[in-house]
Design a protein that fits this description.
- The complex is a heterotrimer of chains A (about 650), B (about 250) and C (about 230).
- With about 650 residues, chain A is of the alpha/beta class.
- Helix content of chain A is about 35%, strand content about 20%.
- Chain A has 17 helices and 24 strands.
- In chain A, strand 23 and strand 24 form a beta hairpin.
- Chain B has about 250 residues and is of the alpha+beta class.
- Chain B contains eight helices and seven strands, in the order ββαβββββααααααα.
- Chain C is mainly alpha-helical.
- Chain C contains nine helices and two strands; from the N terminus they run H-H-H-H-H-H-E-E-H-H-H.
- Classes of the chains: A alpha/beta (about 650), B alpha+beta (about 250), C mainly alpha (about 230).
């Protein structure tokens, strides 16, 4: 497997501009001769599709939702970072770059992250011109808020719905091109396979989710923007339909998968209330600005929180991290919540929660101030839990939120399969081992608006692509593979439901490949995953037929892929014998119990090549070394 | 923690051409903390084990923002709780022994795909007709070049929060899409960036509503009451003003 | 850019037409009521009012034709909206109910087509009874004119007429209860504060108009025609 990151030479700040100077262009009248498929219409997909169509390419977009506008980018709350330095607090492209690479615990490519910081300002310009209603100050100019992991205010926001507003901006740009005829939009279509001809990505296989028909689509390039794979844990903050299938099927066709074990677990989510629970709801990180996190000091203390006196409350973040207190980064907060609940100090009916208490903030600032800041979040919390957070502390617990790992891409965001580009959360590129808040939106839009449209032209201009039609045998073979798998799933006719299997898989992943990991746990997880996968293929019950709308068949097909991905994640976590960012190995901690990186041996991207699944996942790991020319590696400390 | 038994009357329809009918189901051990959709998940698990085709309904984010879910519950779009999408409705709003009728949004412009799942692509076509500001990637000026008064920006945001669920159409006695269309117009038309295309946009989107077969707005205002984000019917009046300005 | 006709026939155009014609008809109804109240004036007040209108000659005919056109347009738009609504929801809900405030849905708003159609029939009968009906002659200021007052007083001694009119006027009030506010919204009234005031004033106006109109026939009927205290029959 050839892994050339293709990072341009030269000083960090000139790499992207030099690259743009050097890349090949497609003449305007030739662009209309190219067909480009964009899979997924979230921030990355919608922005890439509209930008490519504006350039003159013929674009086809596919989404699993009933409308392109419903991709899960819509749920992002907090904001989007940019190095505009409007607040005059000393921000710069360099500082945004530095915070992002440090926040990722030095496990991302310097050149990619620097380009991300450079593009950040263009994104804000573009979004404002599209009519995205960002928060503004009294003078009518754009306002910023501060966010975790940074000492400057650089986050642009639309109240708590920044993702929605940015996505609608990109979606509307996309619909503009649907109107102009340059985009053919196909909602309710799920990509089931990638078609590779002569080593290049030349099309995809989809299932029309309404008719159930397997369809073939040819193209000159495929852009995969299908998001992350957090739903492998069953419970996560992801949307129910978010899945890994498109990316995983590309992986099985030869695309390398990078750092699969890097999963961000968000500390402030509403805890699980019962087995029926279908998803977890995030409460904005901003709550930790005023809320104090605690658990009772005594094990099994069942008193209502208001009756527990001050000296019997364990404010563990404040005690352990006096300088950052409740505002430690996401990974640290999540890890500590797990530690105290593992000690049996957890609260609530399940014991899997900690308190986030606003009592002191309300006493200090008054209810009105707290209501003005967090009113909508408090209302959402009350709606879900039926508890009033003004009177009793919130109960929170960490939940799977974002996956930093994904398909491996070079500097051009092209995978190791020529013609297959990967953008947004689906690729591994910019966040290393931990993503900072307000950076996901930035990356999705940077990839889609300002990188892919250039680099795809470079690829097309540099290749001679023979015309292919969907009658090519590679299409028939891929379509048959997809169709056969559906038949296999339907033929099992077992006794256990898909959700029962998925929930069990999620429990293995959460307990052993979750917030903290160790060799013993990972090894047993791998065995358990294999056994459960075997049972799945022998005993799953998939209802209905494949030739009509059948959501449970869709789920079954996705869960089948999760079973393979899960094993890869555990293997990846097992080989990485260090702790970094979200990845905490119990064996590798500092004396104070903090993540201990091993830069000597593990400063690399783990890049996995798929070989086969035969009882176990057969795979081969490659390493892309990470070299840090411009920043100095430091141990993170929040004491 | 109390559990309930809930009786359901659910619309079942095999496909677009099937005439459809109601089926009765009973769900036992319903927990008050369950969301409405989780209650249906539990029912579906039971149906699957009994080898009965599960009930199809649309959902995705389950946190009230994607706009996928859109059930009509006891004749009210998204059920009894105000400013709440179906996925954020919890079973504590019901009591033991309740009978709940669940129907899909009924509108000629939203044909049923299966059971409670409908095709809302008409909304996409309304947006495609003009629901955007034409700015090519890369051609945007510096973001702070055009100040937008804070109140204008805030009001634009209020209209821009539409989640496109279609509850407005479902609840409207006339199946009108005026609130959906009006909200997008009220968002874009009031911003300085949106002014150059205002007339063209307004006419095109109004025209597309007609083509899609939505009914006229008779100012019942039911749409605002069921809207999970509480978009005001002022949007509709603004749409009419914009239209008059554009045409006359 | 659509032509003016296309614009008026669009979804927004239809509502603008409906609102404009509706408001015009509202003003007509208000003046009509004021005119009717002349029945409680001096013995000749009502016939004098009628004669004054006839003195406009051809202008009266222009007004009448204009009124008919406006009425027809209003009715036609209303029926078109109703027909389209039927097409837009071919299958009804098994259960349907309003979510409540801030919905303006009410018996009034839901029955616009029904009350409208009844009012069309009423107007035809009404014109036939009074405008085209046989009246005796009366001499006023030395000129012969229609004795409309006697016709009114006689007609409403008949319980069918008296109660029929009263019911029609309740329906008119119902129609206007939603209609007055709705017309303003159709013409672009978007301010929430103003809208709330207009809604309240609209409902009050509808109630007052209905009471004003139905008071006359019922009063004549229960008062025994010319025996009624406020009716001055000479």
């Amino acid at each position: 497997m050839k892994l050339d990151p293709k990072v341009p030479e030269g000083p960090l700040e000139n790499k992207w501009s030099d690259h743009l100077r050097d890349i090949k262009l497609v003449a305007p009248n030739n662009k209309r001769k190219y067909n480009i498929i964009v899979v997924g219409t979230g921030l990355a997909g919608a922005s890439a599709a509209s930008s490519l169509a504006e350039l003159g390419y013929n674009v086809q977009t596919f989404s699993i939702q009933d409308s392109a506008r419903r991709a899960h980018s819509i749920a992002a709350q907090g904001g989007i970072n940019a190095a505009k330095n409007y607040p005059n607090d000393g921000d710069s492209v360099w500082r945004l770059f530095y915070d992002t690479i440090k926040g990722g615990d030095y496990r991302a490519r310097e050149a990619n992250v620097y380009r991300l910081a450079q593009n950040s300002n263009l994104i804000i310009d573009q979004a404002v011109a599209q009519g995205v209603p960002f928060g503004r100050d009294y003078g009518g100019l754009l306002d910023n808020r501060s966010f975790g992991g940074a000492q400057v205010s650089r986050t642009f926001y639309s109240r708590g719905q920044t993702g929605q507003q940015l996505l609608l901006g990109a979606y509307q740009a996309m619909m503009k091109e649907v109107n102009s005829g340059k985009i053919q939009d196909y909602p309710r279509q799920e990509m089931l396979d990638l078609v590779v001809i002569d080593g290049k990505a030349r099309g995809i296989i989809t299932r029309d989710l309404v008719s159930g028909e397997i369809q073939k689509w040819n193209a000159d390039a495929v852009v995969l923007c299908t998001g992350g794979y957090g739903n492998v844990f069953y419970l996560s903050t992801n949307a129910k339909n978010s899945n890994v299938t498109a990316a995983w099927r590309c992986h099985k066709r030869g695309a390398a998968f990078a750092n699969p074990c890097f999963v961000q677990i968000h500390p402030t989510c509403i805890p699980v209330s019962g087995d029926y629970q279908s998803k977890l709801t995030l409460m904005s990180e901003s709550l930790r600005n005023d809320g104090r996190v605690w658990v009772p000091r005594k094990k099994g203390d069942n008193r209502p929180p208001s009756e527990i006196p001050e000296d019997e409350r364990y404010y563990y973040l404040e005690e352990k991290y006096p300088s950052f207190g409740n505002l430690v980064p996401r990974d640290v907060a999540s890890r500590n919540a797990k530690m105290v609940t593992d000690q049996g100090l957890g609260v609530g009916p399940t014991g899997l929660a900690v308190y986030l208490d606003f009592r002191d903030a309300i006493k200090r600032d008054g209810k009105a101030v707290i209501e003005a800041k967090y009113g909508n979040l408090f209302a959402m919390y009350e709606n879900i839990t039926d508890d009033n957070p003004y009177e009793t502390p919130m109960r929170i617990f960490p939940a799977v939120h974002y996956t930093m790992g994904g398909l491996w891409v070079d500097y051009n965001l092209m995978s190791n399969i020529p013609g297959l580009f990967v953008a947004g959360e689906a690729n591994f590129s910019d966040h290393g081992a931990n993503r900072l808040g307000a950076s996901a939106l930035m990356q999705g839009l940077s990839d889609g608006y300002f990188i892919i449209p250039y680099t795809i032209g470079n690829y097309l201009a540099g290749e001679t692509l023979e015309p292919v039609s969907t009658s090519h045998e590679a299409f028939s073979e891929a379509a048959k593979t997809s169709s056969d798998q559906l038949d296999r799933l339907l033929a099992v006719k077992g006794d256990k439901t898909i959700i029962e299997f998925h929930r069990e898989l999620g429990k293995i992943m959460w307990n052993k490949v979750g917030i903290s990991r160790n060799r013993e746990g990972l090894e047993s997880a791998i065995n358990e995953i294999r056994a459960l996968r075997e049972e799945f293929w022998e005993n799953v019950r998939v209802p209905g037929e494949k030739n009509y709308y059948n959501k449970y068949l869709e789920f079954a097909n996705r869960v089948a892929d999760y079973f393979e991905l899960a094993e890869l994640m555990a293997m990846d976590a097992l080989q990485r014998e260090e702790s970094c960012g979200c990845h905490l190995r119990d064996e590798y901690q500092t004396e104070e119990g903090e993540a201990l990186r091993n830069d000597e041996e593990f400063s690399f991207v783990a890049v996995w090549e798929y070989l086969n699944v035969n009882g176990k996942l057969e795979t081969r790991m490659h390493k892309e070394p990470l070299e840090f020319e411009f920043v100095e590696l430091q141990q993170r400390s929040y004491k | 923690m109390s559990t309930m038994t809930i009786n359901l009357k659910v619309w079942r329809q095999k496909n677009r051409n099937d005439s459809g009918h109601f089926e009765d189901y009973t769900v036992e051990d319903v927990n008050e903390h369950m969301s409405f959709l989780e209650m249906l998940d539990v029912l579906n698990e039971k149906l699957i084990k009994e080898h009965i085709d599960p009930i199809e309904f649309d959902y995705d984010c389950r946190e009230g923002i994607c706009g996928s879910c859109n059930l009509v519950i006891n004749g009210v779009a998204h059920g009894p709780k105000h400013k709440t999408a179906t996925c954020q409705l919890h079973m504590r709003n019901y009591k033991d022994g309740d009978t709940i009728v669940i129907e899909p949004p009924r509108s000629a412009a939203f044909p049923v795909i299966k059971d409670l799942v409908v095709d809302r692509s008409a909304f996409d076509r309304i947006i495609a007709a003009g629901g955007y500001i034409s700015v090519k990637t890369g051609s945007a000026p510096e973001a702070n070049l055009i100040p937008v008064p804070q109140d204008v920006s805030n009001t634009a945001f209020d209209y821009a929060t539409c989640i496109g669920c279609g509850a407005c159409v479902a609840a409207c006695p006339n199946s009108s899409a005026a609130l959906f269309t009006g909200a997008k117009l009220a968002h874009l038309n009031r911003l300085p960036q949106g002014k150059p295309e205002r007339d063209k946009r307004t006419i095109a989107m109004v025209n597309q509503m007609e083509i899609e077969g939505f009914g006229d707005c008779s100012n019942h205002g039911e749409c605002e009451a069921v809207c999970p984000v509480g978009i005001s019917i002022s949007a509709i009046a603004e749409m009419r003003r914009s239209y008059m300005k554009a045409v006359f | 850019m659509p032509s003016i006709t296309d614009a008026l026939l669009s979804q927004v155009g239809r509502k603008i037409l409906s609102g404009l014609t509706g408001l015009f008809l509202l003003f007509f109804v208000i003046f009509h009521l004021i005119g009717n109240l002349a029945i409680f004036g001096s013995p000749d007040a009502m016939n004098a009012y009628s004669m004054m209108l006839h003195d406009f000659g051809p202008l009266l005919w222009v007004a009448r034709i204009g009124l008919v056109i406006i009425f027809v347009v209003h009715a036609w738009v209303g029926i078109a909206i109703w027909l389209r609504k039927r097409k837009a929801r071919p299958q009804d809900y098994k259960v349907y109910s309003s979510k409540g405030d801030p919905s303006r849905q009410s018996l009034s708003s839901r029955s616009m087509a029904f009350t409208g159609v009844i009012l069309i029939i009423f107007v035809i009968l009404h014109v036939n009874t009074f405008a085209l009906g046989d009246t005796g002659d009366v001499v006023l200021d030395g000129r012969t004119t229609h004795d409309i007052k006697t016709l009114v007083v006689d007609t409403f001694q008949d319980p069918v007429y008296a109660f029929g009119y009263a019911i029609a006027m309740v329906l008119l009030g119902t129609h206007l209860g939603h209609g007055i506010w709705s017309a303003f919204v159709s013409l672009g009234m978007s301010s929430r504060k103003v809208s709330a005031v207009v809604y309240t004033v609209g409902v009050a106006a509808a109630v007052l108009l209905a009471i004003g109109f139905l008071f006359i026939p019922l009063y004549i009927y229960f008062g025994g025609g010319c025996d009624a205290a406020l009716i001055n029959c000479n």
